[in-house]
């Protein structure tokens, strides 16, 4: 079974060695050899460099060389970004080739269209590596959870922000120091926006929604808030109240539909997700049959990601033999229904800057009470004589109440709402 690679970067260049290392197991599973034939690179210069470095594959610089090669059955796209990846994948599917990709941005934005094209041409489009790198979460949801109903999904699905938050929580690093170190270690790009603002997690959450809830939501329908606003005061209050702060993607189903959001979240220190540290990823599920379960592992990196890519290739080879290639990666599909905001209930943490004088706390209580929000836990930080920060965890409120409270606080000159984050309860 011949494969073409589009892109020979971090993940792409790891795939050949992984295939070689697993040759014995692959042969036992498939009674067929998998071999890489052509590799698309950007320029002749790059192709020459790679040949010189001893790589034995046929490096090409035009997609036509792959599309017109009838011996190639599987195209593995590992270039990233939207274009030309979208065009090349579409052309490969139209040419009757199955496609494996790890491109979450592309799939979250154009997955439905590409999936239709794959089905029309009776070929496969698989993308296990696009969510949580090495964790086989999509196939697990598609196969093993076929007999179960997921009611809530919580995911730590961005390693960069999790690394930064771990350092901020455990070592007292500032956001700036955490970001600089993440960039130095190669965990964050020079433009970290997608990672720190939760956009990368939004793309992955959109894909998880299809597999866990059978509903397609576009990234623009997923509310997101990033980690740059997290202050030292938030970290201290979280620590003192027994929580850790993580960037969590959540999808929950209520009677009116699903609600999806990526936001900094207070997790009880004893919650299984609180133990997910550094660049590691995890997806935590509440489901009717299984109860609570968590899938943990490396969310990125050459080997973990290439492992998921190779698993997709193996599945395609099997489907090819079974003559079931046209079957969709995910067959669970329901009409998308978005939850009413009044039905989505959560506890929230608020940090509010107040004048550092007596009587202010009572005024704050009155403001919250006016929109029917009651306090569960409060921590007043020592002020500087001028201003003080109060950390509040409220009882459960709806999205509608949250919006009213935000509006109310915005009108108050004395009180400055610094941050509010969702609080997840212990199961
Ligand atoms: N790295 C991870 O841990 C990880 C984890 C999960 C998913 N992914 C996904 O996997 C994909 C690949 O990631 P990566 O980390 O391997 O990226 P990468 O290291 O930047 O590699 C991408 C490669 O594609 C090449 N490329 C880009 N555009 C091209 C074009 N038009 N023609 C030919 N070659 C082109 C680049 O060449 P130049 O260097 O010449 O630009 C580069 O060698 C992305 O979609 C990413 O989101 C990565």
UniProtKB/TrEMBL annotation:
Coiled coil: none annotated. Its cofactor is a metal cation. SUPFAM superfamilies: Glyceraldehyde-3-phosphate dehydrogenase-like, C-terminal domain (SSF55347), NAD(P)-binding Rossmann-fold domains (SSF51735). PROSITE patterns: ACT (PS51671), HOMOSER_DHGENASE (PS01042). NADP(+) binds at residues 6-13. GO terms for biological process: methionine biosynthetic process; threonine biosynthetic process. Keywords: Amino-acid biosynthesis, Methionine biosynthesis, NADP, Oxidoreductase, Sodium, Threonine biosynthesis. The active site is at residue 204. Residues 349-423 form the ACT domain. It comes from Lactococcus taiwanensis. NADPH binds at residue 104. It comes from the Bacteria. GO terms for molecular function: homoserine dehydrogenase activity; NADP binding. L-homoserine binds at residue 189. It catalyses: L-homoserine + NADP(+) = L-aspartate 4-semialdehyde + NADPH + H(+). Belongs to the homoserine dehydrogenase family. This is Homoserine dehydrogenase. Its EC number is 1.1.1.3. Pathway: Amino-acid biosynthesis; L-methionine biosynthesis via de novo pathway; L-homoserine from L-aspartate: step 3/3; Amino-acid biosynthesis; L-threonine biosynthesis; L-threonine from L-aspartate: step 3/5.
